[in-house]
Every structure is written in structure tokens, then in C-alpha cells.
Design goal:
The complex is a heterodimer of chains A (288) and B (275).
Chain A lengths: L6 H28 L16 H8 L1 H35 L2 H16 L2 H11 L9 H7 L10 H30 L2 H9 L4 H12 L1 H15 L3 H7 L11 H12 L3 H27 L1
Helix pairs in contact in A: 1-13, 3-7, 3-10, 4-7, 5-11, 7-10, 8-9, 10-13, 12-13
Chain B lengths: L2 H33 L3 H4 L13 H7 L2 H34 L5 H10 L5 H15 L5 H25 L3 H9 L4 H29 L3 H6 L7 H10 L6 H17 L1 H16 L1
Helix pairs in contact in B: 1-12, 3-12, 4-7, 4-9, 4-11, 7-9, 8-9, 9-13, 11-12
The chains are: A mainly alpha (288), B mainly alpha (275).
């Protein structure tokens, strides 16, 4: 009875058709635009084929943006996982059921905030004269000025802190929930063998959770690609180009500075190809 | 065996946790406090904890046309996109969950892969397309674009929710003479409702918080609240900080309203895993 129903067709086909149209049209059009020389200020255009891509590889600002993006990806993913596993294990070890629920609720709050809000909250906090985050430094040094967002050496890390504040705390909750799903027997066996607490986690529980932790890292890698809002509000890619990631550079080429839509689109297409290939490969490996 | 170091370790662990909990909420609490301060109480070298509260910032924010328009646009754009996501995403998820076919894996991968697409790569061509068809800077353009997000996210999260509905209940309904569609309406939807609400709330938070696409697809009429809030700060630090803080609070409230729903959703996902 179930097999012969028309339900799968009527339920699936319209949705998939719409998803296909909504995703393929912009994707293909992005490639078309990248092969032209459109600008926002003029309506005419011609086909320039691959010259936008050729230009990109000699554009030092583009190469800098690639490097900043890679740095951003590594710093935020590693820091998020370290914070998540650290706090997750601490909650598992040192908090009772009630406190666990309480911390879980607190740790979910930052990730729910719009990134624009999170960026503002911390931009105020980082203010060298009146910020709450720089206050301890002023207090200790007797009023010296420390402006983390305007120094090339610290700006990326200052923004990354906000990202980890949002995602690291959230993932700590997930790590705790994962630890809670483990059967208690292996942990007790290790305890009977006089394993220390950290040894139990390093050699028993975390290896048992390897697959979900890798998936979690995968999610964070995708999420880290969406850094635009944080950087746009906090530094606009500055100081100089110290925090200019690929999407920030594409945006400023396409909209702020020159309106070179085609050039920006070429960048976006490269990003798309790189991420689709990387994540398809990673996903197949995670699934396997 | 060694009670002392273990007890000390526990104490340190508790202290670290308490500090993390404090850091999780304090920046936000501080922002909310600043929203209630006069400018002189914000621009102080030593942070002021005790001050005379004022509602001036909040009433200023709520009285500005740009903020109200942004709020309206956000509510309409996100609300419509979520409704479309529900109407198209839930049935499709049910079909994948309950009528397995050889494409099920590919469909799931396709839906997930939509999350890989860099937002810039979607936003630039869409901007050109909407300009050409004359819909640039309108809410319909934003709603259609956001629907791609909401449909795929709701579908992705609803598949496991429908799989969690005990098959026996559905089989029993078939035996009682229900058709495939009424099993979906009368059995699967109500039984899975709790998880489905979590998935829907998540998709709402996602589009409410969205920034890059809204920034590229609007110039004046269709600006959403995040864009309006970010523009307030573009006027430099001349804008009184209290007003900016108040706008941050306004922008953050709707997602926080879903805190309970979403943490319940998280719990139910992991309870399912355990069983």
C-alpha cells in the first residue's frame, strides 16, 4: 500500500526542483559573470574569458586574502575544538546534573546572537579607552592604551576570539552531550585500572568519540568560511589588509572600492570550487 | 588514593567552568546595561556599575523610522522564508525519511552541499539577476533568496526527526485505512512536532542573523535589521554609544527568545542518539 502511493513524488519533486533552480541559477550565473567584464557603474560588458582569473594570481592583495583566510580557518577551527573539548570534559567531570543544565543554557547564548550583535558587543569591549575587555589591562598598567583591533599582529586574533566565544562554547555543550551518550563500562574499567581522569579522556572517551568529533570539526570548518559579518563590523578587513579574508576582499572589490562585479565574481567562483571540492572529499571520508 | 590533588583538581575545574560561564554572558549583560546608561556613564575610564538608568536610548531606537522599517523587513522576510521552508521542506523530508529510494543518499548530500556554497558566490550573481528583472532591493527578492536557506536547513534537520517517529504507529494507521497523505498529516507531523519546531526555530535564527546576502541585495527599501544596526555604527563613534547598544539588544532579542526551544531540541537529538 505504502509502496504504491504517489506521496514521494508529490512531496519531493517540487521541493527538489525549486532547490535546484535556486542554487544552480546563481551558481552558473556566477561563472558567466566571472568570464565577462561587468562593472556596477556601466551597463555594457564583453566576454573576457579567463583574464579575470589570470589577473587574480598576480594580485598581491588577493594572495594576501587567501593567506588570511587560511590563517582564519586554522585559528578558529583549532581554538574552537580545544575550547569545546576542554570545557565539555570539565563539565562532564566537575559539574552535577543541575549545574550541567545551567552551563549548557549559558553556553548556547553566544551562538544564538546575530554575528552583527556579537561583533558590536566585542567591538565596544575592545575599545582602548572605555572598553570592558581592555579595562583589566588599563587597571594593571595604570592607564596604558591597548587597542587590539588596530594592531596588525593582534587584530585577527581579537576577531577570532569572538568567533570562538560563539562556537567554542556551543560545541562544549555538544561534546558534553556526546560524552553522556557513552556507555559507562569502559570508563569504569579504566578507573579500576587506576587511570587518571585525564588519561581516561585522552585514551578512552575521546577516541570513542572520534567520528562525531570529526563531523563537528567539519561543521566548524564550513561555518568558519562565513566570517564576513564579524570582520565587516569589527575591522572592515583592517588594519591595512591584516584581516581581509576572501569574502571581505571580494565584497570590497565588487561594491565598496571599484564596483568590479566580474572580478569579485571570479574570486567567488574560485572559493566555490575550492570549498566544494574540499568538503565533498572530506564528507565522503567522514561518511565512509 | 590521592584525595588531596583530586579535590584540588575538582576545585580548579569548577573555577574554570564558572569563569567560562561568566565570560559567556557577561559581555551581553554589559551591553544591555550600557543600553540603559546615559552617554556620560558609558564613556568612563573605569567601568561604571552603579548609575541612574535611562530609557532614552531605547525609546530613541524604537522611534526611528529606519529601525522600524528594518524590523518590519526582517520580520516579513524571515517569516515568509520560514513559512516557505516549512511548506516545502517538511514534506520533502518526510518523503526521504519514509520512502527510501536509491537517490536518498544523494538527495541528502545535495541538500547539505547547499551549505558549502560561499554566500558571496550566491549573492553577487543574484544581485545582478535581481537588478536585471527589476526586483533588486525588494522584499520578494530577499524572501526567494532566503527560502533556499530555510528549505535546505529545515529539510536537513527534519529527516532525522521523521525517522525518529516509531514506524509501528504509522503501520497501525495504514491498517486502520489511513492513506499515505493522512498518515503524514495526522500521525507523523503531530508525533514529530517537538523536534520539527526545533528545526524551524533554528532556520528562523539562521535567516534572522543573516547579514552578507541582505547587505548585497538591498540598498534602501529592503534593508533588514542587522544592516540598519551596522549602519548606525558606520556614522563613526559620534553616535551615542547607548543608542548603538540599545540597537544591539533589540537585534539580539528575537533569537534569544528561542533559547528554550533550541536547547530542548539539542537534548532531544542526543536522547535519540542514545537509544
Amino acid at each position: 500500500m505504502r509502496r504504491r502511493s504517489s506521496l514521494p513524488v508529490t512531496f519531493l519533486v517540487p521541493t527538489l526542483a525549486i532547490l535546484l533552480v535556486l542554487s544552480m541559477v546563481p551558481t552558473l550565473y556566477a561563472i558567466v559573470i566571472a568570464l565577462q567584464n561587468r562593472e556596477l557603474s556601466t551597463t555594457g560588458y564583453s566576454w573576457v574569458w579567463f583574464s579575470n582569473f589570470a589577473d587574480l594570481f598576480t594580485d598581491r592583495r588577493f594572495l594576501n586574502a587567501v593567506w588570511v583566510s587560511v590563517k582564519w580557518e586554522i585559528v578558529t577551527v583549532v581554538a574552537t575544538m580545544v575550547v569545546a573539548i576542554g570545557l565539555g570534559v570539565l563539565m562532564f567531570e566537575a559539574a552535577g546534573p543541575r549545574m550541567r543544565n545551567f552551563y549548557c543554557l549559558l553556553f548556547i547564548i553566544p551562538v544564538l546572537l546575530p554575528r552583527v550583535s556579537a561583533a558590536f558587543v566585542w567591538k565596544f569591549a575592545y575599545h582602548p579607552l572605555y572598553g570592558i575587555a581592555t579595562y583589566p589591562y588599563r587597571l594593571v598598567t595604570g592607564g596604558l592604551i591597548f587597542d587590539p583591533l588596530s594592531k596588525p599582529a593582534t587584530a585577527l586574533f581579537a576577531v577570532a576570539t569572538v568567533d570562538v566565544w560563539q562556537w567554542g562554547l556551543f560545541f562544549a555543550v555538544i561534546v558534553l552531550k556526546l560524552l553522556e551518550t557513552l556507555p559507562p563500562q569502559p570508563i569504569e574499567a579504566a578507573r579500576l585500572d587506576h587511570a587518571r581522569r585525564w588519561q581516561i579522556h585522552a585514551y578512552v572517551t575521546l577516541p570513542m568519540l572520534k567520528a562525531p568529533l570529526v563531523s563537528l570539526m567539519f561543521v566548524k570548518m564550513i561555518e568558519s568560511l562565513r566570517s564576513f559579518d564579524l570582520i565587516y563590523v569589527m575591522t572592515r578587513g583592517g588594519p591595512g589588509v591584516a584581516t581581509e579574508t576572501l569574502d571581505m576582499y571580494a565584497f570590497s572589490q565588487g561594491f565598496i572600492e571599484s564596483g568590479k562585479v566580474s572580478y569579485a565574481s571570479a574570486m567567488a567562483v574560485l572559493m566555490m570550487i575550492a570549498t566544494v571540492i574540499t568538503f565533498t572529499m572530506l564528507w565522503k571520508r567522514v561518511q565512509a | 588514593m590521592k584525595p588531596y590533588p583530586i579535590r584540588l583538581g575538582r576545585l580548579i575545574a569548577k573555577a574554570v567552568l564558572a569563569l567560562a560561564g561568566f565570560l559567556a554572558v557577561f559581555p551581553l549583560v554589559w551591553t544591555a546595561l550600557n543600553a540603559l546608561k546615559n552617554n556620560v556613564d558609558i564613556i568612563t575610564r573605569v567601568p561604571k556599575v552603579i548609575f541612574t538608568p535611562t530609557l532614552a536610548n531605547i525609546s530613541y531606537i524604537l522611534g526611528r523610522d529606519s529601525v522600524l522599517t528594518g524590523l518590519y523587513n526582517s520580520v516579513v522576510a524571515c517569516g515568509s522564508a520560514v513559512l516557505i521552508g516549512i511548506a516545502l521542506g517538511l514534506p520533502a523530508a518526510y518523503a526521504v525519511a519514509r520512502y527510501p529510494n536509491r537517490f536518498a543518499g544523494d538527495i541528502q548530500f545535495f541538500v547539505l552541499s547547499l551549505r558549502f556554497l560561499p554566500p558571496v558566490a550566491v549573492a553577487i550573481p543574484l544581485m545582478v539577476i535581481w537588478l536585471q528583472v527589476g526586483l533588486y532591493d525588494t522584499l520578494p527578492a530577499l524572501i526567494v533568496t532566503y527560502s533556499l536557506l530555510t528549505i535546505s536547513v529545515i529539510m536537513w534537520l527534519a529527516i532525522p526527526a521523521f525517522q525518529g517517529v516509531p514506524k509501528e504507529i504509522e503501520e497501525a494507521a495504514f491498517v486502520d485505512g489511513y492513506g499515505a497523505y493522512s498518515v503524514f498529516w495526522r500521525i507523523a507531523l503531530p508525533v514529530a512536532a517537538r523536534s520539527l519546531i526545533g528545526a524551524i526555530a533554528f532556520s528562523f535564527v539562521l535567516v534572522w542573523n543573516e547579514f552578507l546576502i541582505a547587505l548585497m541585495l538591498s540598498s534602501s527599501n529592503a534593508k533588514t535589521l542587522p544592516i540598519v544596526a551596522s549602519e548606525l555604527s558606520q556614522q563613526g563613534m559620534n553616535v551615542p554609544w547607548g543608542i548603538l547598544n540599545a540597537s544591539v539588544v533589540l537585534l539580539s532579542l528575537p533569537p534569544l527568545l528561542f533559547l528554550g526551544v533550541l536547547s530542548g531540541f539539542l537534548n532531544s537529538v542526543f536522547r535519540q542518539k542514545k537509544n
